[in-house]
Amino acid sequence: MITKIKKRDGREVPFNIEKIANAIFKAAGAIGGKDYVTSLKLAEKVVEYIETKLDKEIPTVEEIQDAVEKILIESGHARTAKEFILYRAERTRIREMNTRLMKVYEDLTFKEAKDNDTKRENANIDGDTAMGTMLKYGSEGAKQFYEMFILNPEHSRAHKEGDIHIHDLDFLTLTTTCCQIDIIKLFKGGFSTGHGYLREPNDIHSYSALACIAIQSNQNDQHGGQSIPNFDYGMALGVAKTYSKHYRLNLVKALELLTDNSGISIQANAVFQKIANEHNVTPTLVPNQRYIELEQKYLMEYVEDIEIIKKAQSFAISKAEAETDRSTYQAMEAFVHNLNTMHSRAGAQIPFSSINYGLDTSPEGRMVIKNILLATEAGLGNDETPIFPIQIFRVKEGINYNPGDPNYDLFKLACRVSAKRLFPNFSFIDAPFNLKYYKPGHPETEIAYMGCRTRVIGNVYDPSREIIYGRGNLSFTTINLPRIALRSNKNINIFFEELDRKIDLVIAQLLERFEIQSRKKVKNFPFLMGQGIWLDSEKLGWEDEVREVLKHGTLTLGFIGLAECLKALTGKHHGESEESQNLGLEIVGYMRKRMDEASKKYNMNFTLIATPAEGIAGRFVKLDRKIFGIIEGVTDREYYTNSFHVPVYHEISAFDKIRIEAPYHELTNAGHITYVEVDGDPTQNLQAFEKIVRAMKEAGIGYGSINHPIDRDPVCGFTGIIGDICPKCGRKEGDIKFQRIRRITGYLVGTIDRFNDAKKAEVRDRVKHMAFSK
To answer: Cis before residue 612, ω within 30 degrees of 0?
Structure first.
C-alpha cells in the first residue's frame, strides 16, 4: 500500500491520491472534460498499477507521472493523455528554469566578475559593485520570466537554443531601445525631468549641463543608447548667448574706464534692451555691422565721443571672443567629465551616450566642435581616455573634407584627436545611401549614428518624415548564420530555405514585441514621451497609448558570423575568396530584401542591422560547438565574427578590408560600422591615419573608426602603448593592473578584465594581427 512518495529533491512526503485525480481532471478539462468521478477512478487504476506491476511502496514523482500516461492511453483517453504530457513537459520546463535561475543567482552572489561571464556580459557595467550585481539579479530574473510566460514558445525555444538571439530580453515588456534627442527643441522654453522644471539655458555652461541631464533622463526610459544628433548646432546657441553676455559685460567695463559717467552701466543696459526689443538683433561672434551701428547710435545719447564708443566696442569684441572660447572649452570639458561619472539605472551604469557633429560652419558651431575635440584630447583628470560620449565626426565634401572647405581644419583636428583617444569615429554623408536623404540647410536630414552603429533615417510609415530627430530603434533580434550554414551541409538552396524560415520567425517575434510596446502609455515614458523627445509624442495625452508614434521607429533583424557562415558553405570566408564575397553579398542582400518586403506589407520600418554582438558572439559558438563539434574556421574559436566583418585574425591590409566591407554598408540600413586595426602610435603618423579615413569615405563606407591600443599606467599616469613594463616609470604589471582601453561594439572599455571570455579572445586576436598600413 502506497503511503508515501519520493519528491525530486529526495524528500518523502505523504501520498495523496486526490493529487493524481486532480492532475487528470485538469488535463481532461483542457479538452472539455468535466467528469471528476472518472478522473478519480483512473487515479485508482494508477495506484493499482504501481502497487501490483511496479511493486513500489514509495514511488517517485516521475514514476507516478509515467504511470498516469500509461493508464490514460490504455483506458482509451489518448487526448487527455496528450494534454497531461504537455502539462508535464511545461511543468518540467518551469522547474528547470527556476533551478537555473537559482544557480545564476548563486554565481552572481558569490563569484567575482572575473570568474563569471554573466557579470561581464555588459562591459560598461561593473558587476562587482552592489548596484551592478542588483541590476543583474533583475535582468536575469526578467529574462527567465519572459522566456517562460511571455514569449511565444516557438520564439522562446529558438532564442534558448541559439537559432536567434532576442536582444535586451530583460526589457521585453518595458521599453524601446534608443532615441536621437533634438536638444534645440527640448531646450526651447525649458523642460521637466519629473522632479522640477528646468528653465531654458542661457549660456554654454547651462547648455552643457542640461545636455547631460537630457541624456541621463532619457536613459532611464530606454535600455539602449541616447544620441544627440545635432550637438554642434544645439550647443552653438549656447555659445551665441554666452558671447552676447561677455560682450555686454566687457563693453560696460570699457565704457566705465573710458568715461566718468557713473550711470553708464544702467544706460548701456537700456541700450542693449532697446536694440533687442525694437530691432531683434544681438551681439554676435562675427560682429554684426547693423548691431554695431545701432549700438553706436543709441550710446551717443550718453557718450558724446564716437571714438570712445568705437574703442569700447573693439575692446569688448576681442575680450568677449577670448572669454567665450574659454567658457566653451570649460563647458565641453565639463560635458565629457559628467558623462564619464554620472549614472543612470539606480547608479549601476553610466549612460550610453553619443554625439554627432562636424557640419555646422557658423563661428559658434565651429567653436563648439573645436573645443569638444580639444577637451577629449586633454582627457580626464588623470589623463584617462574618456569612455563617453561616443563621438561621431560627420565628413562631407564642401564642408570639411578638402582644403579650402570651411571646416577642413576641424577635420584635421578630429583625425589628430582620434589618433590619440580612439574618438571621434567618422560618418560619411556622401555615401550614396546617406546622401540621398541629405538636404543642405536641414540638419535633421544629416545622417546620425548611435555609437554602437544604429542608424535611423528612412521612414516607410511616414515618408514625409525621413529625418533623424526624435526617432530610434524599437527592438532587434539576431540570426545565427553559421548554424544555418552548418545545417545545410554546403547546399546553398537548403541554406536559403532555412534562412527564410528564420527570417519569418524573427518578423513574427518583432511584431509580437511591438504589440507589447504599443500598449504602453505616455506615462510609462515620462521623459521620452512626456517631454516630447520621441517624434509626434507631444500630440499625445498622459494616458494615451504610444502605438502610432512608435511606428516612426525601426524593427530590426540582425545577423552574426557571416565569415564563419561562408567558411561552412564554401570553405573560405569573404576575406579569402571573391566567390565567397559574392555569396556574402547575396546572403546579406537577401535579408535586406526580406526586410524591405516586410516594410511594405506592414507599413512599418523593418530594417537590417550589422549586429553589434558583445555577448552572443561567444554564446552562439558555444552552443554550436556542442552540436557540430570543433570545425576549423567555424567553431574553433571562442567567438563568431561580428556581422559582416572580415575576421580579425585574418591577415589583410586596411585598404582591402575597407574595400571588402564597404558594399555591406548600403545593405544594412539599420546600422553598420567598419573597423580598421592599427598597431603602434598613430599620433606619430597622422598622414597615414587620415589616409585610412579618406579611404573609408572614397569606398562608400557609412560609418567607420580606427582601432589602436591605448594603455595607461594608473601609478605614474603614462598614457600610450605599454607592453609588460611601463616605459615611463619602469613598473611591471602586478597587483595594480595597467588600464588597457579597447573598443567593443562601438563602445570603449577602460579595462580588458571587464570583457567576457569571448570578447577577451577577440581582442587578443585583434592585437596579434594589427598592422599599420604604409
So the answer is: no
The set of long-range contacts for 527-530, using a CB threshold of 8 Å and a minimum separation of 24, is 527/193, 527/194, 527/217, 527/218, 527/220, 527/221, 528/176, 528/179, 528/218, 528/221, 528/222, 529/221, 530/192, 530/194
Residue labelled with grid coordinates 554666452: 242
Helix/strand/coil (H/E/C) assignment for every residue in 193-206: CCCCEECCCCCHHH
User: How many residues comprise the chain?
Assistant: 774
- Cell readout for 324 is 567665450
Biggest alpha carbon–alpha carbon distance for the chain: 121
Residue 251 and residue 313 in contact, taking contact as beta carbons nearer than 8 Å:
yes
The helix/strand/coil state of 37 is helix
Does the bond joining 389 to the residue before it have cis omega, within 30 degrees of 0? yes
Which triple of cell numbers denotes residue 211?
A: 545636455
Q: What's the grid cell of residue 767?
A: 592585437
Which residue is it, cell 535611423?
Answer: 456
Q: What is the DSSP code string of 447-494?
A: --B-TTSBB----SS-GGG--STT--EEEEEEEEHHHHHHHHTT-HHH
Please answer whether residues 422 and 385 qualify as being in contact, where contact means their C-beta atoms are separated by less than 8 angstroms: yes
Residue 729 — φ and ψ, nearest 5°? -110, -5
Compute the distance between CA of residue 694 and CA of residue 403 in angstroms, rounded to an integer: 13
Three-class secondary structure assignment of 665-726:
HHHCCCECCEEEECCCCHHHCHHHHHHHHHHHHHHCCCEEEEECCEEECCCCCCEECCCCEC
Alpha-carbon gap, residue 618 to 605, rounded angstroms: 29
DSSP type of residue 263 = T
Closest CA to 709 of 738, 672, 745: 738
Residues 227 and 356: their CA atoms lie apart, in Å, by 8
The amino acid at 359: L
Distance of alpha carbon 313 from alpha carbon 296, whole angstroms: 9
3-state secondary structure of 264: helix
The separation between CA 303 and the C-alpha centre of its own chain, rounded to angstroms, equals: 59
In the block, cell 495625452 appears at 541
Residue 372 near residue 412 (C-beta atoms within 8 A): no
DSSP assignment of 616-674, as one string?
HHHHHHHHHHHHH---TTTTSSSSPPPTTPPPTTS---HHHHHHHHHHHHHH-TTB--E
Q: How far is CA 524 from the centre of its chain?
A: 21
pLDDT per 10-residue tile (average), the chain, 774 residues: 83 90 90 89 92 85 90 91 84 70 77 66 65 81 87 94 95 95 97 90 97 94 94 98 98 94 93 95 95 96 95 97 98 96 68 95 98 96 90 98 98 97 96 98 97 94 98 97 97 98 98 97 97 98 98 98 98 98 98 98 98 83 96 95 94 96 98 91 93 98 92 86 88 86 64 53 55 40
- Phi, psi of 605, rounded to the nearest 5 degrees: -90, 80
Helix residue spans in 76-222 (DSSP H): 78-110, 130-145, 153-161, 183-187, 204-219
Phi then psi for residue 587, to 5 deg, are -65, -50
Q: Which residue, among 468, 440, 412, 432, has the nearest Cα to 693 in the 3D structure?
A: 412
529 within 8 A of 472, measured Cβ to Cβ: no
Return the number of other C-beta atoms located less than 10 Å from residue 744's C-beta. Answer: 23
SS3 call for 336? helix
Which grid coordinates belong to 285?
A: 561672434
